[in-house]
Amino acid sequence: MANETPQQFTTIRYVAYRRIALLCIICLTSFLVALSSGNIAISLPELISLFGDNAEPLHTQVVLELRLPRMIHAFSTGALLALAGSLMQVLLRNPLADPYILGISGGAAFTALLAIAIGLIGWTVSLAAFIGAMSAMLLVFGLARGQGSWTASRLLLTGVVLASGWGAAISFILSIAPDNKLRSLIFWLMGDLSFATNIWPALITLAIGFVICLYFARNLNVLSLGAEQAQSLGLAINRFRWQLYVLASMMTAMAVVQAGSVGFIGLIIPHLLRLIGLRDYRLLIPAAVLAGGSLLVFADTFARSAFADASLPVGILTAAIGVPIFIFLLYRGVKTV
Fold first, then answer.
1. Model pTM?
2. What's the confidence (pLDDT) of residue 209?
3. Is 146 helix (H, G, I), strand (E, B) or coil?
4. Cα distance between residue 193 and residue 184, in whole Å
5. pLDDT at 336 over 50
6. Residue 148 has pLDDT above 70, yes or no
7. What is the mean pLDDT of residues 60-85?
8. Which residues of 167-273 form beta strands (DSSP E)?
9. Which CATH number belongs to the domain containing residue 156 in this structure?
10. How many domains does the chain have?
11. Cα distance between residue 316 and residue 307, in whole Å
12. How far apart are CA 320 and CA 316, in angstroms?
């Protein structure tokens, strides 16, 4: 942006703000669709009437006790994955990096499936998943560091290898699981928001992660220029990379706790945002929250509403959306980092 005139810079920022405003509208639309769609259809006037004295008791119960908590779970999970994906791609200098590439989700999935298989339910499964995710993070970081400092390529290779190991462990759990628990295990593994219970842990994690990411935004812009240039500008590369890795891992861990393995959101959202010109992390970070949250809200709404007597794992829909979009991005040859 050094060669841009002040007028060109102002125009670029104005266009970026317009796009973020559009994302806000899309986000609001996803909320309305999520609250009104389902086996019991609720119109917009009926939604508004819930805040008045003439509210229908059945509608109030359906919206406030069922749909609203699930919508919040979906939004917070999608936003966490999009934020973590944005950090991972600049951290590893790899456009194919996503929140699950370092095996964090594998550790969380293994411990959660093990907890479900032995009969644990509710918050204990979430606690097991979080412990597994953070243990996997420490294991990857420790092995990648070895006897000296770690590099992005070493961290990536270590994560990929450990992810394969977690995959084998998960397959073992599924192979010995009782038949009456196998369906719930597979649903959780494919991504399912019906296991989420308390909305506050994910919302608090999202709020903290969002604030920290905004605080890091200028340094993220510097790091995206390359390690050598960032270091020449005075950025403490090793310390900052470690901070990004821990932050992205914690957000990924909470997302996995909420919904299991929901793929492609952390991969395609940063790509799409950069494609529409939001490369400045001061703008990309809030846009990632809006876009990632909205995408998962839309996907989860369709997953629970597509069939009258069944609910699809939301991970199937995010994959169905993400694969063609990512193929299109590869075909276009978009520079994403």
1. 0.89
2. 96
3. coil
4. 12
5. no
6. no
7. 92
8. none
9. 1.10.3470.10
10. 1
11. 14
12. 6
Under a CB-based contact definition with an 8 Å cutoff, are residues 124 and 255 in contact?
no
Beta carbons of 248 and 84 less than 8 angstroms apart: yes
Among 5-14, 71-80, 296-305, where is mean pLDDT lowest? 5-14
Residue 299 lies inside a defined structural domain of this protein: yes
Residue located via tokens 């978009």: 334
Residue 2 has pLDDT above 50, yes or no: no
Looking at the domain assignment, is residue 2 inside a domain? no
Please state, as a whole number, how many other Cβ atoms lie within 10 Å of the Cβ of residue 90: 24
Q: Name beta bridge partners: 310.
A: 307
Contact 103, 160 (CB under 8 A): yes
Q: Which of 226, 92, 111, 209 is nearest to 160 (CA)?
A: 92
Pick from 80, 99, 81, 79: nearest CA to 89: 99
Scanning the structure block, which residue is given the tokens 């406030």? 64
Q: DSSP code of 198? A: -
What's the CA angle centered on 248, arms 123 and 209, to 5 degrees?
Answer: 75
CB-based contacts of 321: which residues, under 8 Å, 6+ apart? 264, 268, 295, 299
Nearest CA among 334, 303, 295, 299 for reference residue 81: 295
Rounded CA-CA distance 319/58 in Å is 34
Full residue range of the structural domain in which residue 26 is found: 19-332
